[in-house]
Amino acid sequence: MRPKALITGITGQDGSYLTEWLLGRGYEVHGVVRRTSSLERSRLSHLYVDAAVYGQSLHLHYADLDDPTTLRRVLLRVVPDELYHLAGQSHVGLSFDIPESTCEMTAMGTLRLLEMVRDLPKPVRLFHAGSSEMFGRPAVSPQNEDTPFQPVSPYGAAKVFATQMVRIYREAHGLYAVNGILYNHESPRRGENFVTRKICRAAAAIHEGRQRELSLGDTSARRDWGDARDYVRGMWLSLQQEVPRDYIFASGVLHSVQDVVEIAFASVGLKWQEHVRQDPRFLRPAEPTNLVGDATRANTLLGWKPEIGFEQLITEMTRAELTQDGLAA
Ligand code: F7E
After folding, report:
1. Which tens digits make up the pLDDT trace of 213-270?
2. Residues with CB under 6 A from ligand 1
3. Is residue 304 part of a domain?
4. Could you tell me the residue range of the domain that residue 58 belongs to?
5. Do 152 and 259 share a domain, yes or no?
């Protein structure tokens, strides 16, 4: 019997790459999609239209984190071996504008899922996507799995709640449950309102004469950026271990938004100074600092290390925009 995985957030960047990774390993993959998700243009459309895949090894189910009855029904029908919980409102800036729905989805949604998992007749291995944003303004750099959380955004606080609940359910109820503490990870499939994709898209559009300028918030902000394809491999590896633990997934290197701008614009032969301007609308009420991860545990126990470097990633993301089809890469 081939292993079965269920993914919440399957239509997102990570969900789509994880689906491909699991299908490549012979899994039967099931995904939870929201009623509003448009499958036509989703990151899964290349699989959705493939009759040899969709309905055979890939199955999608309508449900939502705020619809526990339906979600429970899906869990009971699918009976997965592994459950990857990736869904949630993931834009940090937006979480200042819509804190209640962010917490409802990310914090309470995870708790609801844990309650369902606890009641399942057959145990399932659960992966929860935590975030470096939970560290906020940490006292130590780089951060590891023992660094205390000090979130500075509603999104970060919601992720702290969810992550701690996963730990509580693991310890109190004996669930096989893992938190991946994921630092920023990007790809040509990244959502368009995250800064790397926004910059790469704009550089390509300006190069092709479709856009004139790019407005950004704080370009001095620094992040630990990796490649989403490396991170989904880490998610899978973390569920293949005998003992469930939390893992940091990070590149260990800090870059600024300005670095992204310079690489992206240079890769299409443009002078960024002629096109980039600051717009206070994109500044956030609070910014985390020094978010850089120490992935020693993942490296030692899982043999995980990132394979795709920052410059290669930003260059690839910019080139993918020139083809007018970010999903092709
Ligand atoms: O911002 C600055 C912005 O929105 C990165 C999510 O996946 O990673 C992601 O959250 C930085 C911030 O990602 C613009 O202020 C400047 O300092 O790409 P971002 P994020 O907020 O770090 C973590 C780990 C997650 O868990 C999240 O789900 O770039 N920045 N100018 C800008 N950011 C945006 N979006 N747009 C700008 O114009």
Report:
1. 999 999 999 999 999 999 999 999 999 999 999 999 999 999 999 999 999 999 999 9
2. 90, 92-93, 131-133, 183-184, 193-195, 198, 216-218, 221, 223, 257, 282, 284, 287
3. no
4. 4-186+227-249
5. no
Are 98 and 159 in the same domain? yes
Return phi, psi of residue 33, to 5°.
Answer: -120, 145
Residues paired with residue 222 on neighbouring β-strands, in sequence order: 256
Answer yes or no: do 63 and 135 share one domain: yes
CA distances from residue 131 to 149, 151, 159, 247, 316 in whole angstroms, order as listed? 10, 10, 7, 11, 24
CA of residue 66 relative to chain centroid, distance: 20
Q: What is the pTM of this model?
A: 0.96
How far is it, in rounded angstroms, from Cα 312 to Cα 9? 26
Instruction: Judge whether 131 and 116 are in contact, CB under 8 Å.
Output: no
Residue 218 belongs to some domain of the structure: yes
The answer to whether 133 is a known catalytic residue is yes
Q: Is 155 a catalytic site residue?
A: yes
Q: Is the pLDDT of residue 113 over 80?
A: yes
Nearest residue CA, atom 14 of ligand 1? 217
Answer yes or no: is 302 within a domain: no
| C-alpha closest to that of 105 among 126, 125, 129 | 129
Q: Please identify which residue in the block is written with the tokens 């994921």.
A: 182
> Are residues 114 and 93 located together in one domain of the fold?
yes
